[in-house]
Amino acid sequence: MTSTFLGMPGTVSMMGYSGKEGFPDNAAKAVRNSQLRFNLRKATGTIRERRASVVAELPDWQGLRQAGKAIKDHTLRDLDAYLVQLEEAVTEAGGHVHWARDAAEANRIVTGLVKATGETQVVKVKSMATQEIGLNEALHDAGITAYETDLAELIVQLGDDWPSHILVPAIHRNRSEIREIFVRHMAEWGRPAPETLTDDPAALAEAARLHLRERFLSTKVAISGANFMIAETGTLVVLESEGNGRMCLTLPETLISVVGIEKLLPTWRDLEVFLQLLPRSSTGERMNPYTSMWTGATEGQEFHLVLLDNGRTDVLADKVGRQALRCIRCSACLNVCPVYERAGGHAYGSVYPGPIGAILTPQLRGMGTELDRSLPFASSLCGACYEVCPVAIDIPTVLVELRARARHGVAERAGMAAAGWVFKRSGRLARAQRMGGRMRRLVPKRLPGPLGGWTDTRDVPAIPKESFRDWWTRTDGGNR
């Protein structure tokens, strides 16, 4: 299928992520790919071990976790005031602030800003917010080509692919696959890969470095996201591991940052907590190699900040679901999730895969499609995601709440009403139990209709001949 996700014909649209098929169908296809399962198991297992090791070094990890939760909750309660404070600080520092209520408005703002420079090419720091709104596609429609500069995003772009992980978008690729992508497609986007390129990691990194350096030195407009924004000073913060982001943030003459409104922190002191939580939870490092910070417009550069809502205020109004806005995009929940490890990120049909995506995406997009209604069920509810979340998002609780909202069929409502009527009176329940015991031989091995989905992977429990209630009565309380 030809589309325009990453700025050139033949790439896959992130907007097309919201397809017609639900998670069960997507996952069923993914688990049949043995290479994918091997790649995911190896990568997530390695990250899990590294995270566990560095987290165990801190005796106050649980205290830091609760501090992160408290800071985020406090910020979300007073988000309106802190956003105004941020706008004033950025403006005072020479930057320009733009407010975008949805994806369409954000895309119009960014496209207009790029057009005003007269440029037709932009470089990008890895940004999930711009993927969420389909910015690259909008830029392409305006005649502007966006070049991804994060190494993993570059692999995804060259491979005409979708990101599969929050932190490591190309986690589903192994190094031999990456070599093939570089050899076949790198020349289409700029400097070609060496003819003698091997799948040695150092050689692949060098090929990417030479390819990207050429782009950094010739492009005058950059687009970034941000991990955090500091309200008291108007400072934006990006954490990364490669240094490509810093090149992107400093060399271009115009910098446009698109950031979700929930990425706000009130003070510099609050940032200290998250600079400990995020690297350990994401890459399993004590601190990230590159932390870039900028406040307003720096010398020789024009700065624009686009504050993105796109459903976030609706999530904020939800008493149960709003905790998803604490997320700092560390991906720890993906790396421990048994469902993600087998199905991969593409099965979620969203920019945000894994457990956090299963609660964040349906809230941001609504439950208007089969895919979005199915995402809250993409979990075993084992609770591992909650245990590793550095800001203590109770993902299982939100999943259960969203499941209840997704179950709105007439047949299901009628069934639950009937069950409620039976359980309301003990006499009714006793009669139903006796009837079930008499008819136990007639129960099929596979339940009919929609109930068949349950018995596809489970046996129908055997119905006892006599209920516990009747046994207790007959034996006079078990003969006491």
UniProtKB/TrEMBL annotation:
It comes from the Bacteria. Residues 85-299 form the LUD domain. GO terms for biological process: lactate metabolic process. Residues 324-393 form the 4Fe-4S ferredoxin-type domain. Keywords: 4Fe-4S, Electron transport, Iron, Iron-sulfur, Metal-binding, Repeat, Transport. InterPro entries: 4Fe4S_Fe-S-bd (IPR017896), 4Fe4S_Fe_S_CS (IPR017900), FTHF_cligase-like_sf (IPR024185), Helical_ferredxn (IPR009051), LUD_dom (IPR003741), LutB/LldF (IPR004452), LutB_C (IPR024569), NagB/RpiA_transferase-like (IPR037171). Gene3D superfamilies: Alpha-helical ferredoxin, NagB/RpiA/CoA transferase-like. GO terms for molecular function: 4 iron, 4 sulfur cluster binding; metal ion binding. Residues 404-474 form the Lactate utilization protein B C-terminal domain. Pfam families: Fer4_8, LUD_dom, LutB_C. This is Iron-sulfur cluster-binding protein. The lineage of its organism: Bacteria, Bacillati, Actinomycetota, Actinomycetes, Streptosporangiales.
